[in-house]
Predict the 3D structure of the following.
Amino acid sequence: MTSGDPRLDEVLDACASGDFPRAHAACLRLSRARPADPRVASTLAMILLNLGKVEEAVAPARKAAALAPNDPQARINLARVLALTADVAGALAALGEARRLAPADPEPRRVESLIHAEHMRFVECINACDAGLALAPGDRDLAATRAMALLNTARPEDAYHALGDLARARADDDYVLSCRALVSNYVPGLPAREIFDVHRAWAALLEHATPLSPRGPRTSVPAGRLRVALLTPDLRRHSVAYFALPLLAALDRARCEVWVYYTNRHADGLTVRARALADRWIDCANIADATLAERIRFDAPDVLLELSGHTSGHSLACVHRRPAPLVATYLGYPNTTGLRAVDLRLTDSHADPADSLATERLVRLDPCFLAFEPPAEAPDPAPRPAGTPPTFGSFNAVSKLNEYTIGLWTRVLDAAPGSRLVLKAMHLRDDSLRRDIAARFAARGADPARVLVLPPAPTTAAHLASYGAIDVALDPFPYHGTTTTLEALWMGVPVVSLPGETHASRVGVSILTNAGLPDLIARDADDYVRLATALTADAARRAALRTELRGRLRASPLLDARGLATRLLDALGAPLGTTGVDPGR
């Protein structure tokens, strides 16, 4: 990276190496020497962003735009900064100016699409991508962003096919292949073998580019306390944190130390709580995967437990370098990573039967692979008022909706005359997306008056109180709910689930079996419709479940974080190839 200016190049070189503190110091010196140089002001703004100092970045970004009124890049940089301060209108206005100054440049559309995606405006994101692709057909960033927006508008089939086309055009692009692996979990009818092959295709690319590091022998339990290192960007308001926090609190510190390598700049109250539960906390949001692997190898944990799989912000390229004697994947992803460097995947016998496909050895933490911590804000379950119409509901993420599930739930409505379906999710704050999903149910023959598509509730308490209007919760297919299923049960609402071949489509089996509700696991689609409608007709059973389910959950493995913590440490501390570990890959 060079600008032709030696002093500015010094700053840019520090940025390129990831040394943003050094870049910051050098850029501050340069900005004092050249207060009217827009390139210096703009560079300072971008450095501050990388250091997580978003509010401080606003002034130099505005200064750069004012000093260079005809520079579209200064307005693009300003837009990036404003978007991170939640000034979306200001960011979009800056991008409008950038497009006016450079009408043939697709970069403003790239940034616009990412801003829309970050703020869950996925229909607008797709529109921005389409406009950018008209300027730059085949652009990788725009095409990939568009595909992921399709997933988040309940079109996983279209997203998967789009990423397949992109992967064929860019067979050496690990980001595209990783996105395709992620999306494969959501596509109904996709064979388990194809899903596995998609994950292996991504891993093979990585393994070819960076050969596997040698693995040191690990044939006995480490001496002293087991040093368990978690690698994650998701100890924040995220489903991973909801299940990781009770486990962290329950782990026996006489048996283990817990280290956390946190790869996200974003922190919230859950991050603060997680930090307090860790023996060591290492912030590494701006560290490249190779450097992070070296850091972990130097620190020498006994076990590296990655919690992301192929989800956003993952560090699988670090994991591939085998920075610990034992590497395991757990909790944050419902499938194999595809990596031969990962030794174990932690699951249970309900979610992953013996014939599951994985590059990792499966360790089954039976009877259940997770532990739920009921939200403190949860109100008491509310009885359903007499005379209200039978109401089905799903509060799952929009990405778990698809044409198959829309058709299945329309069949449920048809089989229960007078019933309603209530959908609610974070992404449904977007008016255009709510209209689109309602129209897709109508296209399947559902009466629009019987399908309520709602924006998210403003608080956790209000979200959970919404279950007071639901008689029966419907699990999507093939990607089941986890947090949503447990929340529904905690609020006294039974959940009907249809199992499939993969972990993503069998989590409902694990949860319902451990909750003592195996009779709500359908044999097939016809049985799913029968079970759902039978529950709406059985007011006595539903009323009993409203009052009994919390007690059942408290007495079940689903709330036994201490038992899960013991099983986890037993599995991670055992020699490879012994108790709980499948003999082959």
